[in-house]
């Protein structure tokens, strides 16, 4: 017999002694396992009202069925159509700035102007970093999206008389050191015109945004920061790139690329996001919405022409 065999033989009695203690073998002092109890006990019928126990099958086992994919075909089935163009005054003039009439410059009888653009609800629940994004960019963190090129929105605001400022700054360009400077520019009042519950409503955009800390609508106002135009050094002959095309047209978290931004510190860190969608106030997913941009000082004490019932007009202008 090879020398190792007697050594294994000496270990066997010890293993036999330990196995019952570890629950791996039979012993007169080892309590029956749950499986043994189930096999020897007489079955008891479950009461009629009892619900069946949840399945314990592993998700990796052959009998596990994955949950169904989302029903994308049903998304937007309750979407509301676009209301008529929300003119501030029946006598105002409208100028379409694109052939598809997705953006207008409205001139009121007194000469004041505002911008009207089409958008679509792309999210109704969740944390927010953007209010209005460019289509196919930031839909996972924005309430509205639009197909209107951001540079056209910028140009329309300038034509409406808005004062363009500068984007948020996080680093001092002279020293290279961290230095926060909020976005600047003329205040822009943002309104939404939409259908819900069989009526047309016009509301301040802030009413669609919930401040998580106060549990009330957001109170901050946007400013016309103007994003940035950046030249491609490798192709200087190309037109400059307007960086709001990255997605942030009307920002909530501070972004240097935003056309409109909040002039207060708002983090982009997911763990510190301070705002979320006010689901109860929003029309259904994929509903069409007019976004109205009014430069500061432009009056809007009018009522929407489509609905003059109390409570559906414009809220008083913040002081």
Please tell me about this protein's structure:
The protein is α+β, with helices and mostly antiparallel strands. It has three helices and 18 strands. The chain has a domain at 83-295. The protein has helices at 4-21, 34-40, 150-159; strands at residues 93-96, 103-107, 113-121, 130-134, 142-146, 169-171, 178-181, 187-196, 199-204, 209-211, 216-217, 222-224, 229-230, 241-242, 248-251, 260-261, 275-277, 288-295. The strands form four sheets. Strands 1, 2, 3, 4, 5, 8, 9, 12, 15, 16 and 18 form an eleven-stranded mixed β-sheet that branches. The chain is globular, with a radius of gyration of 32 Å.
Mean pLDDT: 79
* Bulk shape: globular
Main beta-sheet strand count, sense and barrel state = 11 strands, mixed
Based on CA atoms alone, the radius of gyration comes out at 32 Å
What are the low-pLDDT stretches, counting only 5+ consecutive residues below 50? 1-13, 20-61, 298-319
N-C termini distance:
100 Å
Q: Number of helical runs?
A: 3
Share in helix? 10-25%
* Amount of beta strand: 25-35%
Number of E-state strands: 18
Backbone structural class: alpha+beta
Question: Could you give the order of the helices and strands?
Answer: HHEEEEEHEEEEEEEEEEEEE
């Amino acid at each position: 017999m090879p020398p190792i065999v007697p050594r294994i033989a000496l270990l066997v009695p010890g293993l036999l002694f330990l196995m019952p203690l570890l629950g791996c073998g039979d012993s007169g002092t080892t309590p029956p396992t749950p499986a043994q109890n189930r096999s020897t006990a007489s079955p008891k019928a479950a009461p009629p009202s009892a619900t069946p126990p949840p399945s314990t099958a592993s998700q990796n086992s052959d009998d596990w069925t994955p949950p169904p994919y989302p029903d994308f075909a049903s998304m937007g089935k309750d979407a509301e159509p676009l209301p008529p163009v929300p003119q501030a005054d029946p006598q105002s003039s409208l100028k379409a700035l694109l052939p598809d009439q997705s953006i207008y410059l409205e001139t009121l009888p007194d000469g004041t102007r505002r911008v009207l653009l089409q958008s679509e609800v792309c999210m109704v629940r969740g944390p927010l970093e953007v209010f209005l994004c460019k289509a196919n960019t930031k839909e996972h963190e924005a309430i509205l999206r639009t197909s209107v090129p951001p540079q056209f929105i910028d140009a329309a605001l300038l034509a409406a008389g808005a004062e363009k400022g500068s984007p948020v700054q996080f680093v001092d360009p002279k020293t290279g050191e961290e230095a926060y400077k909020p976005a600047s520019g003329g205040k822009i009042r943002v309104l939404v015109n939409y259908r819900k519950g069989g009526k047309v409503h016009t509301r301040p955009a802030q009413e669609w945004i919930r401040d998580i800390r106060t549990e009330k609508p957001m109170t901050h106002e946007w400013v016309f920061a103007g994003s940035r135009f950046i030249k491609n050094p490798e192709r200087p002959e190309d037109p400059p790139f307007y960086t709001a095309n990255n997605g942030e047209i009307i920002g909530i978290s501070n972004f240097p690329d935003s056309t409109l931004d909040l002039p207060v510190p708002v983090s982009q860190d997911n763990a510190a996001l301070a705002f979320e969608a006010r689901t109860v106030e929003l029309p259904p997913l994929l509903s069409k919405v007019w976004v109205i941009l009014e430069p500061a000082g432009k009056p809007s004490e009018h009522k929407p022409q489509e609905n003059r019932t109390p409570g559906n007009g414009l809220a008083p202008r913040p002081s």
